[in-house]
Design a protein that fits this description.
single chain, alpha/beta, 10 strands
Length: about 325
């Protein structure tokens, strides 16, 4: 079918007349001025795990490098922001390393650039009164574990502790069930839900999946391979801005916490401050002190890829170097 189009000369004349008639002061915008913001889509609501990104914007790290950043929070269909990057709907996003490997195994064009959490804060919280000593006790004792069984870390723990005595059920929102049931355990970020439980008078004990051997990078900044190839300078500017933002946030999180608090009314200022302090141990390591916040190693990616293959989360291994790049 033939497409009916207005000739270019007629189009320009029409736009000029429309502009003059509706907005007398209207001027033609250059492509540079009309360029859309660079979208950074985060995979959760504004909380300290994203503090350095907000600090980078507040502190002018993006703008000083000529990057007009638009930080968005995932919701609805965009709850897996790596899909938005793969589809070209977001320029950058955050995810976890295991989800990125799984995405690449399904042909998604996504690459890791910067890893905030060097130690995964993913874990399980239990009532301290149960007297558990290790994360294995959660699986060898009767009770209920609120967790998403399809998650790679849960599959890893079930492989490590087979034939569990615990019953695994879908994790409900909030901590109400945990507070109400003494034999209930719940998946958590060590830096988040346990603080809320303490606020409500509970006495949680926490165990890290990382201590059992499953330790993917978390809150990983990603982009598409296409963007990495075609816009290397943009990628470099964004990563450097994020690194500077995270360094500043780790040193003084108050400004970014206030900004995030204005966007997320579910967390109070005290909890923001406590979480920001608690998460430092998961962000800073010997590697990051030597090579900078956010650095990654091929060995860590190789280990993760093999673990996911062993768990049948992915069906083919891949080169670690395909998954990430350390931007200098």
């Amino acid at each position: 079918m033939t497409s009916h189009r207005i000739k270019p000369s007629v189009t320009l004349f029409f736009l000029a007349v429309l502009c003059a008639s509706l907005t007398p002061g209207c001027k033609h915008k250059s492509p540079q001025n009309a360029a859309r913001p660079v979208v950074l889509m985060l995979d959760w609501k504004p909380e300290p795990e994203f503090g350095g990104f907000y600090q980078a914007k507040l502190g002018g790290e993006f703008s000083r490098r000529g990057v007009n950043i638009d930080i968005q929070n995932a919701s609805g269909d965009a709850m897996e922001p790596w899909k938005q990057v793969d589809r070209g709907k977001a320029d950058f996003a955050t995810t976890s390393a295991d989800l990125l490997v799984d995405a690449r195994a399904h042909k998604a064009d996504v690459v890791a650039l910067f890893a905030v959490y060097q130690t995964s804060p993913q874990g399980i919280m239990v009532h301290k009164a149960r007297g558990f000593k290790t994360i294995g006790d959660v699986f060898t004792h009767p009770g209920t574990l609120g967790a998403e069984a399809d998650n790679a870390w849960v599959k890893f723990l079930l492989a490590k502790f087979p034939n569990p005595a615990v019953t695994i059920t879908a994790d409900p929102p909030g901590i109400g069930v945990f507070m109400a049931k003494p034999n209930y355990s719940q998946q958590c970020f060590i830096t988040s839900e346990p603080l809320e439980v303490k606020r409500q008078g509970g006495d949680p004990q926490t165990f890290l999946a990382a201590d059992a051997g499953f330790n993917p990078y978390v809150t990983v900044l990603i982009t598409s391979g296409k963007t990495l190839r075609e816009k290397p300078e943009l990628v470099k500017k964004v990563v450097i801005a994020c690194r500077e933002g995270w360094r500043a946030y780790l040193d003084n999180p108050s400004a970014a916490n206030k900004e995030m608090g204005s966007l997320n009314h579910e967390m109070d200022a005290r909890t923001f401050a406590e979480c920001a302090e608690l998460q430092k141990q998961f962000i800073e390591t010997g590697d990051t002190r030597k090579n900078g916040v956010g650095t990654m190693t091929a060995e860590r990616w190789k280990t993760l890829i093999q673990q996911l293959a062993d768990l049948k989360v992915i069906h083919n291994t891949m080169a670690a170097e395909e998954c990430f790049v350390n931007v200098k």
